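Self-study notes.
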Amino acid sequence: MSSNQNISFQAGQAKGQTQEKASIMMDKASNAAQSAKESLQETGQQIKEKAHGASESVKNATGLNK
């Protein structure tokens, strides 16, 4: 293998490794974003349920729920 071929081969390997690392990092970022989204949705649902419960409590206390 000539020197130019070796350099080209090494450059190709480095490019492939860089692309693979970038792909892994993008997957991790995507997973983190999905996890955050799910967590926020769950938190939002819990808040909604608590607000509904509080609303029902006020209605019951004031007699508006009859």
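Second protein, same conventions, sequence then structure:
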Amino acid sequence: MWIEDMLRRVVRQSKFRHVFGQAVRNDQCYDDIRVSRVTWDSSFCAVNPKFVAIIIDASGGGAFLVLPLTKTGRIDKVYPTVCGHTGPVLDIDWCPHNDHVIASGSEDCTVMVWQIPENGLETPLSEPVVVLEGHSKRVGIVSWHPTARNVLLSAGCDNQIVIWNVGTGEAMINLEDMHPDVIFSVSWSRNGSLLCTACKDKKVRVIDPRKKKIVTEKDKAHEGARPMRAIFLADGNIFTTGFSRMSERQLGLWKADNMDEPICVQEMDTSNGVLLPFYDPDTNIVYLCGKGDSSIRYFEITDEAPFVHYLNTFSTKEPQRGMGYMPKRGLDVNKCEIARFYKLHERKCEPIIMTVPRKSDLFQDDLYPDTAGPDPALEAEEWFAGKNGGPILISLKDGYVSTKNRDLKVVKTNVLESKPATKAENISVVQKHASPQPSVKIEDKLEEVLREFKSLRDRVILQDRRIARLEEQVAKVAM
């Protein structure tokens, strides 16, 4: 009996102990892609059940590719891109509630939101649905709210966090004076009521964005000078990656309500690549992908010591430039696939599939608890008014079938109107089922003209900035 007990202590029981990674065949990769060389520690890749988006090198501005998942093989050099930014793109993020909407942040100080056509791009896309201007320096982080429709966060090198209502194109919350230095990462809590940030001043902060106050903070969560990352877990705890004073890579687990002492801190290795954490709230597994590493390490987080349990490492020969992570609803449940990564090489994107070996062909409900679906729990107005809502869960038993997404409509409030806009006028999605009255047609036409005028105006502003920048550079050279 005591031998069994000893064995149980030595070999921890977990259904994820034997998770293994496998790269797909060469013909299922995306080849001949000029992956961005910009020096910024974001993942450079974003994935959803329909598309993979990759930030690429582009002359004369910033661009990213958007490929249907089925568009594998060699990608033609003239394949159309999303190319509206005038400076390199630093971060991209798919909207969790609409698989055709993606946000991008750039060195040109703007955030742009794009609507991707149903079957992908046939011509270059240079006109965003909306341009969000409010940062004075480059925008390095964009992140959609997990449960409220049309709520988008951006963080810039001006050390500010701005939270936008994309449906009206307005900056609703501006978090200034909270971060004295560059913000390395921002993570929403499970229901989107709190933010967790990692900053160059070595502090991890938990922030209530609507009250504009810091709930708790930890100084020197990791003592090394290199960049940290901090993410919220499903139970409200915080997982961090960073460096020790001796430049060893570390991971840490913290209670969000009291960060005085860590639940645990573990040393990993002495590599110098920033560890990007990808978290699955359904299985409580964290995958760590180091920039410049050629491996993905994964850990299970539980309530038993040592709390963060090493599972395994997936290794290849080639180092990774970036990494995309597929939401759970995009996985193949028939093959017991629990995660899929899109690894960026210098010239290609390679999908990597993580699988739990099972003999049965039946649906494995212990591997696939109900997961966050594409429906938002709240409208933007409700969240900004103080309401909270957890993710609306869906079952993956019969596989996820995507439905047609409605187009993102931006209805800007008219500052020239003397009367305040009513709530009905601000609603971002216009119902299409109304009977076609002549006045409605005229309004639609007017709205279309206004939208075109707005996009032209935005374009002119961007070009003006670019000209001013070039004039400054010429003046410096002349001196």
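Instructor comment on the second fold: The CA atoms of residues 201 and 344 lie 30 Å apart.
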